[in-house]
Amino acid sequence: EELELTRSQLSTLELELAEAQQAGLQRTEQMDKEVALVRAELHEEIKHKEQLLEEAQKQVREFEEERLKGLPVDTAEEIMRYRDKLMLVESELEGQQTLVRKEQSEVRLREVEIESLQKRLSGVDNMAVEMKALAKKAQTQQTASVEKLQKQLREQGKEQAAASEKLVASLKAKVARMESQGGGGKGKGGKPSDDVKKLQAQLKTAERTSQNSAARIKQLEKELAQGSKSGSSVEDKREQKKREKELKGLNDQIDKLRRQLDGKATALQASDEEVKNLKKELARANDELQKMKTDMQQVAAEAKMAVENAEQVKQLQEKLKNLDAELQTAITNYNNERVLRKKYYNIIEDMKGKIRVYCRARPLSGSEIKRGNTSVINSPDEYSIVIQSSRGPKEFSFDQIFTPDHSQEKVFEDTNNLIQSAIDGYNVCIFAYGQTGSGKTYTMIGGETSMTSPSRGIAPR
C-alpha cells in the first residue's frame, strides 16, 4: 500500500510538472505576442515621426526659397549650396537616427527575450530540483517502508514461532500426561488410543506449520533483502528509469536554454557596442549639422547686410572718388611743404650755430656722500653755471645746462633736432668729453640698453 501511495504521489508530481511546462509555454507565447505588439507600435511611431519630419523639411525649403528671391545672385547661389549641403547632412543624420532607433528596438526585444529565457530557465531549474527532491523523498520512503515491512515480518515470525513452540510444547505435555494417565496412552491390544493419535497428528501438524512459517519468514526476509538491494521491483525500476529520463530531458533543456541565453547575451553585447558607435556618429553628425546651420545663418546675415549696404557701397564709391582727388591734392601740397620745411629747418639750425657746447653735471656718488663731500655747482638759469671754488664763485656760460635733476629723456630732446638734420642729409657729430667718472658713457649709452628702459642714453634712443 505504501508503494502504491508513493507511485500515486509521483504520478501527481508528473502531472504538476506537465502543467508547469504548459504554463511556461503559454507564458512564452504571451511574451512573444507582447514583443510583436511593442515592435509594431515602435514602427508606427517611427513612421509618424518620419512623416512629420518630411513635412517640416518641405515647409523649411519653401520658406528658404521665399527668402532667397530678394537676395543677389551670388549670395543666393551660395546659400543654395549651403542648403543642399545641409539637406544632405540632415538626410545622413536621419538615416543614422533611424538606424539607432532600429538597433535600440532590437536591443529591447533581445532584453525581453533574455528575460523570458531566464524565467524559463529558472522554472526548469526549479522543476528539476523538485523532481530530484521528490525522487529522493520517494526513495527514502520506499527504503523506510521496506525496513518497516522487514521489522513487521521479523516480529510476526517471532510471534508465530513462539506460538508454534508453545503449541508444540503444550501438545507434547498433553501427550505425555495422557500416556502417563492411561497406561502409557495405549488402548486395547497395546495400541495408542485415539486421543493420543489425534494429539500426535496435531503435534506433527504444528511442527510442520512452525517449520513452514519459519521457512516462509526466511524467504520473505530474503526477498525483502534482495528488494532493498536492487532498489525496487521491475515496475519500480521502470518508473525510476522514466524519471531519470525525464530528469535528463530537463537537464538537456536547461543546457539548451543556457546556450540560447549565452547567445542572446553575446548578441546583446554586440548590439550595445553598435548602438554606442552609432550614437557617437550621431553626435558627430549633430555637431556638423549645427555647424552648417550656424554657417548658413551667418551667410544669411551677411547676405542681408550686403543687401542693406548695397546703396551705402555706391555712396562710398562716390565719396572714394572725391577722396582720391583730394588725396592727390594733399600729396602735392605735402611734398611742397616738406621741401620748404627741410629748407627752413636747417636754416634755423644754422642760425643756432654749427658748434654747440652743452654742460651736464652728475649727482654725488655714494662714496662721495660717505666721505662728506658736498655739491659746489649752482645753475641760476638754463645757460649758465656757477662753481664755488676756494677763490670764490666762478660762472660759465653754455648753449644748454643739464643739472642732476634732468633725466636722460630731457637730454635727448635737444639732440633730436640734430638727428632730423642728419636724416635730411646734413653731416652731424655728437660726442662727450670730460674727466674719468664724469658721466660720458652714461650720457651717450645709458645705464641699460633695453629699448624700454628710462635710463638708456642718446645712442639707443
What does this structure look like?
- Helix 1 packs antiparallel against helix 2, helix 2 (73-181) packs antiparallel against helix 3 and helix 2 runs antiparallel to helix 4.
- Strand 3 and strand 4 form a beta hairpin.
- The two termini are 129 Å apart.
- 78% of the residues lie in helices and 4% in strands.
- The model has no long low-confidence stretch (mean pLDDT 76).
- The protein has 461 residues and is mainly α.
- Strands 2-3-4 form a 3-stranded antiparallel β-sheet, with no helix packed on it.
- The longest helix has 119 residues, at 234-352.
- The chain has helices at 2-68, 73-181, 194-230, 234-352, 366-370, 408-423, 440-444; strands spanning 358-360, 377-378, 384-389, 392-397, 400-402.
- It has 7 helices and 5 strands, in the order H-H-H-H-E-H-E-E-E-E-H-H.
Please name the defining characteristics of this protein:
two-stranded parallel sheet; 5 strands; elongated; mainly alpha; three-stranded antiparallel sheet; 7 helices; 461 residues; 78% helix
Short description:
The chain is mostly helical and 461 residues long. The protein has helices spanning 2-68, 73-181, 194-230, 234-352, 366-370, 408-423, 440-444; strands at 358-360, 377-378, 384-389, 392-397, 400-402.
